[in-house]
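One such shown below:

_____
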Amino acid sequence: MPEVRLVGPGGEQVGVVRVEDALRLAQEADLDLVEVAPDARPPVAKLMDFGKFKYESAMKARDARRNQANTVLKEIRFRLKIDPHDYATKKGHVERFLKGGDKVKVMIMFRGREQSRPEMGMRLLQRLAEDVSELGSVESSPRLDGRNMTMVIGPHKKKAEAKSEQRRKRDEERSAKKADKNVPDESVPDEARA
């Protein structure tokens, strides 16, 4: 006679019962008999509302997907002879990507005779790594790849941490703006307000 280890609707252990008895108990309680651990000996079944169970498991899966953050590899290209202003702009992009929790692949493109001076490219990449060292560290050191030299910088913070921090800052700014709107302007006399 097939038996199951029955768990009640509140999570309480009922014990090992015959399948017919478990089905009868489920029908009396107007619930479903759901097998939750088929590989156990004897299999574990629970009295529950199956529709509610499916809904809750779908919600858990959705929350897990939402909290899982994918780290993206962003790419920034430099030229060996870069203007200081352009360098500052591109460094700002690298910083923004690292703050967002993404890895950054920095690439220097060599043209013509510049290929005979790889040490200059190495110096530029090391300078960039030092400039953004508080946000990220070098994961893949500079290496020559044909006409290009590449380096990967990884963020110190994980993507999920960075996202939650950005969300918290945005919420703080919104609440500060609301507070500012609710405070009456003291410089305007009461007669002018009316």
In short: The radius of gyration is 31 Å. Residues 3-67 form a domain with the Ubiquitin-like (UB roll) fold (CATH 3.10.20.80).
